[in-house]
Amino acid sequence: MNKIASAGNKGKGVRSDCFISIEILNDSGIEIQLESKVKALYGDSIIKLAKEVLSNFNITNAKVIIEDFGALPLVIAARIEATIIQLIDTDKEFLTPFLEENKYKTTKDRNRISRLYLPGNTPSLMINAGIHKPNGIILDLEDAVAPAKKAEARFLVRNVLRSLNFYGAERMVRINQIPNGLEDLDYIIPHNVNLILIPKVESANQILQVENKINEIQKKKGNIYPVWYMPIIESSLGVLKSLEIAQSSKNIVAMAIGLEDYTADLGTKRTMEATESFFARCQVVNACKATGIQAIDSVFSDVANMEGLKQNVLKSKSLGFDGMGCIHPRQIKVIHENFAPDADEIAKAKKIVNAFLEANEKGLGVVSLGTKMIDPPVVKRAQKLIDMAINVGKLSKNWRDIENEKL
Amino acid sequence: MWVNYQKIGEILKMKNYNLVKNAIGRLVPTEINGKSYVPYMGVGKYRPTGRKYAPLISTCADYPSDGNKLIPSLKEALIKSGLRNGITISTHHHFRNGDLIAQQIFDIAYELGIKDLVWFPSASFECHSTLIKYLEDGTINHIEGSMNGALGRFATEGKMKGIGVLRSHGGRYQAVQDGDVHIDIAVIAAPTADSFGNATGDRGPAACGLLGFALADSQYADKVLVVTDNLVPFPCIPWQIHGNNVDYVIKLDQIGIPEKIVSGTTEITKSPDRLLLAEMTAQFCEEAGIVHDGFSFQAGAGGTALSIGTYFAEMCKDKSIKARFARGGSNKYLVKMLEDGLTDYILDGQTFDLEGVRSMRENSGHINTSPFTSYNYHGKGNFSSMLDVVILGATEVDVNFNANVVTHSDGYLLHGIGGWQNCLFSKCTILPIPLFRDRIPVVKDEVTTICGPGELIDVIVTERGIAINPLRTDLLEKLKNTTLPIKTIQQLKDEGEKICGIPAKPKHTDEVIAIIKWVDGTVIDTVWKIEK
User: Fold this and answer.
1) Which ipTM value was assigned to this complex?
2) Which CATH superfamily is domain A100-339 in?
């Protein structure tokens, strides 16, 4: 009896995915059975792709069954590869095209107001994620992927990093908890992931393990893309060690708090008022601010409650957080609008920036607004606030020209 | 100029088509089901002459003077109306998927051994797939109306004896009025009626709103039957159907399944991708200056269209303006707009939920319309061309903005035309559609079936970009400083194919299974048999 392996998803409601099963045979060549709702349009190209992947792994005799539900080529290839590696020993890979549009870097201080979680083994939720314009997307290999699906999710996430366009969102991956998560890095670091989320961090050492592994991979692959880290604090020990963790690497650009696990660790329940996590949130914010990195709040899990989300965001902003995770694209707008500066803040910042630019134009060294002197950090903060307002669409990019025209 | 395009092949010879290339470059038959058809000549180019069709003259001497036209059974009424081989029987889709009447008519025909009937519904639904057995055994020769789901598959695989004819709602009225289709027996299912035949849809256990799709049939059919499960003493007020046009009235226990007739809840979409489409469309309309005081719009009952309607309502509220009228299928969102004073009128063409039905009874600003007033192209104008904006769907569009609404990209019949073609005449026609559905790109070089010519389609909104028809230089100018992603239709096509891959052209045979009529009765395209 030959071994049969499978990968992918099928069943009610499965879209943009496929289910592959492969049996390696001794002779008789490649036999491919394809069932697909897009067979009339893509049947030939699916079979061609399947043969290409098989041949890449030197498989010449096999029975392949493809049940396709409108999967993109990058998904089909990932599913076939995930099936093959269960059947043969190989260190080969089948890489889908690396889009030029995906070869961008991100800066340490860019906006991270919103970052959208995408389950790492669910292609249908990934395909259109970028069009909702979150600041970042998170391909999640951790909690959103069932243990039995962890291995195949890596291939999918790798192909997605290469071949799916997120239209400028910061490309993030949440790896599994250390040490298991270290192995995830092999699949993502060479493919221009911008940022790694490291879950359930409780010590600086865990960050160092990640950093060492990344350095090793980058050295081997000659990779030049910078990779930022965002540790997630999800336990009382993590909260207490948060400063040490924040300071553990220069590649840490933000630190997040995960309240579901944290409240479980405390033995309490997560409430709307969030008194139970007040200390932890303040502690994490302070550790971040002391280190000069961004503080990111936990997700708000009631996706239907937009008013609740808004209140949550306003509270979060008032505590000093710089952004928040989201688990549904509709949350992005609410998070942006409410984390973003309000009309008063924007008006004040505009005055400061204008005063600064006018002083510069006049060649004055000192910036003043009315009778008050303005310090450089104040100008910088105002400029950042203006940038954020532009970023979330609350202010036009050329607001100064527009206002000058009006005068 | 039409090029005579004689095809040679066994099937073609057998079926004896004469195919010609019409003005939009599609091969269409000039004769099917023993009748001749005029190929599409271009928008507004076909000018029929002559007079409208007319029903036979009746005399009151043949009808009971007490007004009581009740007949004990549908079977008896059909026999009295001259049910026989080869005639055309019409029904209507006011009951949508809850219709119980079409089935009974053809059960009776089958029982009587009648063959070769033409079914002329205003639309068919999944519940009518049970009629396949009558298409197989020859009770029904062919359908002139929409064919979806199982009926669509059956027809597309070439299993229907005759050839299907698909028309828009307005085209159906035109065909009846012009005599292209002669209805022998019209059966009108009426939620409330009196024994004289006056009928209304706005009340009764099977309340469905209005009965506009049956108007032409009541005016032009040889025999008109009203079937009701809620008989009231004369007069049935209001009367949407005039009893003066009706031959017989039949009382049945149940004519429709209420929960399948109108939805208790029409809901705006929850899909974030569709909501984004709706948001982009609404923003486009705002920036194009379409949403102004006194504007008018039509948006369908699909989730995306519904949410665009709610965005319009929000804009009206924010700007303290209101619409003059909203046309189309009514639903609770439109009713709310009406009752909140955000539109003066709803010009209702089809009622989608219970709120719509209630409003029709209660609100003087909720007006019944019909395919005659709203859509008929062979009239002295119609309402749809006065609309400032219509929001429609499509299965495919091509780089010339031609659009398809009836077939899937694999060539199978999928939807009816509905009021879609008729609405293209509005001042601005917008199709919000995803760039691809389950890997199938929506923008193509050529659509599978042309239902609407590109010159009438102004804007394609996809989640990855908006294409404005180059003919609309005014819109291009208005949107030139927008933050919306304006792209060319070619760019949209390339972007879709980059993500999905270039689709193969599905194979079809040379056998015609249905024709698509344009609003003026000419043939705009052909649907071909697919070998399974």
Assistant:
1) 0.90
2) Phosphoenolpyruvate-binding domains (3.20.20.60)
